[in-house]
């Protein structure tokens, strides 16, 4: 009854608002599907004895990272806009309004004064967008420790990354009023926040965990191929959510760059095409099938920071060489003998290549500020993209990622431990965590003995798993 008696602000319930709700709602669902696609990719690349646990850890890492982002991280990101509008105690007010139990989540959008929170319904949905964005982070963090890292270690990294480190980097580099973005840094998809950060963390995690025991023969690469396909299908719908859809005015990238949805979607598919060509050439020349599968993803990551400002022909050129940057990353990982074959190469090497090149291609593009601010430090489009600011962003994010990643991983190593014990790894995590042995594994008899699991009586039906 109290909601019925509350004031209703019509500006929060217009058709334009509902159109934006649907727009961002589709992006949220698509981005979560992209995170699930990563689970398919990894499920195809692990051994059968770790298959069930791979799915369990992956989904929980996704949801823990997303939940941490919703709990506090979204408020950290909103900090920049309070600064732009001169709100006293901007961080405190952002957290007060946008943590999971904050003022703006304890009221219906139509009951919130638009003078205080314009577009409240859209901002509430955008919090869910951040949830799914962090879920991708959690999925990729888990990928670094496949078949050997403790579940508890994965979950701690997902929670701290999703709830604190990722939103702080987003505050700096993703938006339009953050310190670096407002000074001219441009990043449409959040390559600094998601890919470069996760690339450094996964490198540290895989290095400290060490290589997998035994021969990591993939379970089923068809699942990996299916995962790549699902990922590429979901991305265009998710990517358009990285901007402002303003009915009657147009579409603007998250950094306030002029753009259009048509150009963004076209660029996404051009990056797939060009990346596939570059990846195919490398795949056939090196006889490495992984490059054929990863080529389109490499093309996408290399252009992700500038889908909103590239012309399609520029996208083609940048994306074509994206797989080469990723392949150099693969060779680097082999050289230093770190057991991580795809995430670091794609995210760190592909991401750094992309943001630096975009600084040259998109040089002088107007960014920064916010709608309606006409003068001062946060005036609409007050800055220009430069290669120097893109490079500065790389240096700052690499430093933040390296320091936080090393501290967290070493703390985990010295407390609960990072890696499962050798007998558990040999047995497989399906056995170690869930008592779900793989019966067709030739090591099964030895695993049963090591776990002291009594053999099933003859004639007793097997459990349904």
Quick tags:
465 residues, mainly alpha, Ammonium transporter fold, three-stranded antiparallel beta sheet, two-stranded antiparallel ribbon, disordered C terminus, Ammonium/urea_transptr, Ammonium transporter AmtB-like domain-containing protein
Explain this structure to me?
With 465 residues, the protein is mainly alpha-helical. The protein has a single domain (9-371, 380-423), classed as Ammonium transporter fold. The protein has helices at residues 2-5, 15-45, 51-84, 90-98, 120-144, 151-173, 191-209, 221-239, 261-286, 289-303, 312-320, 322-335, 343-361, 387-414, 422-427, 429-434, 444-451; strands at residues 243-246, 250-253, 258-259, 366-367, 383-384. It has a three-stranded antiparallel beta sheet. The protein has a two-stranded antiparallel sheet with strand order 4-5. Helix 5 packs across helix 6, helix 8 (221-239) runs parallel beside helix 10 and helix 12 packs across helix 13 (343-361). It is globular, with a radius of gyration of 23 Å. It starts with a helix and ends in a 14-residue tail after the last helix. The relative contact order is 0.13. It is a multi-pass membrane protein.
What is this entry, summarized?
With 465 residues, the protein is mainly alpha-helical. The chain has one domain: Ammonium transporter AmtB like domains (Ammonium transporter fold, Orthogonal Bundle), CATH 1.10.3430.10. Helix content is 63%, strand content 3%.
């Amino acid at each position: 009854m109290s909601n019925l008696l509350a004031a209703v602000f019509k500006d929060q319930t217009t058709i334009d608002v509902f159109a934006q709700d649907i727009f961002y709602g589709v992006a949220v669902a698509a981005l979560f599907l992209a995170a699930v696609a990563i689970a398919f990719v990894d499920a195809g690349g692990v051994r059968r004895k770790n298959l069930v646990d791979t799915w369990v850890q992956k989904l929980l890492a996704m949801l823990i990272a997303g939940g941490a982002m919703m709990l506090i991280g979204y408020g950290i990101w909103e900090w920049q806009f309070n600064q732009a509008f001169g709100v006293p105690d901007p961080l405190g007010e952002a957290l007060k309004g946008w943590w999971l139990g904050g003022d703006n989540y304890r009221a219906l959008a139509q009951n919130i004064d638009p003078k205080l929170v314009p577009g409240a319904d859209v901002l509430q949905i955008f919090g869910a967008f951040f949830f799914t964005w962090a879920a991708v982070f959690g999925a990729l963090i888990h990928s670094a420790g496949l078949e050997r890292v403790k579940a508890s270690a994965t979950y701690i990294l997902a929670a701290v990354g999703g709830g604190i480190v990722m939103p702080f980097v987003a505050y700096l580099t993703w938006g339009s009023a953050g310190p670096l973005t407002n000074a001219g840094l441009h990043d449409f998809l959040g390559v600094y926040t998601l890919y470069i950060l996760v690339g450094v963390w996964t490198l540290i995690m895989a290095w400290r965990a060490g290589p997998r025991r035994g021969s990591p023969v993939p379970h089923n690469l068809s699942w990996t191929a299916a995962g790549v396909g699902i990922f590429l299908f979901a991305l265009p719908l998710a990517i358009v959510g990285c901007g402002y859809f303003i009915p009657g005015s147009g579409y603007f990238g998250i950094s306030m760059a002029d753009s259009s949805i048509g150009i963004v979607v076209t660029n996404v598919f051009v990056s797939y095409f060009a990346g596939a060509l570059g990846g195919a050439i490398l795949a056939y020349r090196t006889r490495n099938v992984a490059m054929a599968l990863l080529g389109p993803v490499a093309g996408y990551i290399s252009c992700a920071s500038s889908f909103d400002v590239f012309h399609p022909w520029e996208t083609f050129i940048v994306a074509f060489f994206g797989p080469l940057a990723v392949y150099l990353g693969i060779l680097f990982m082999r050289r230093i003998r770190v057991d991580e074959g795809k995430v670091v190469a794609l995210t760190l090497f592909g991401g750094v290549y992309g943001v630096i090149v975009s600084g040259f291609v998109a040089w002088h593009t107007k960014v920064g500020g916010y709608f309606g601010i006409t003068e001062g430090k946060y005036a609409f489009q007050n800055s220009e993209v430069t290669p120097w600011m893109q490079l500065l962003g790389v240096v700052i994010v690499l430093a933040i990622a390296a320091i936080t990643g090393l501290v967290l991983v070493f703390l985990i190593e010295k407390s609960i431990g990072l890696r499962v014990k050798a007998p558990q790894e040999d047995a497989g995590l399906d056995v170690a965590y869930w008592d779900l042995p793989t019966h067709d594994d030739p090591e099964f008899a030895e695993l049963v003995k090591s776990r002291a699991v009594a053999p099933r009586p003859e004639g007793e039906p097997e459990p349904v798993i």
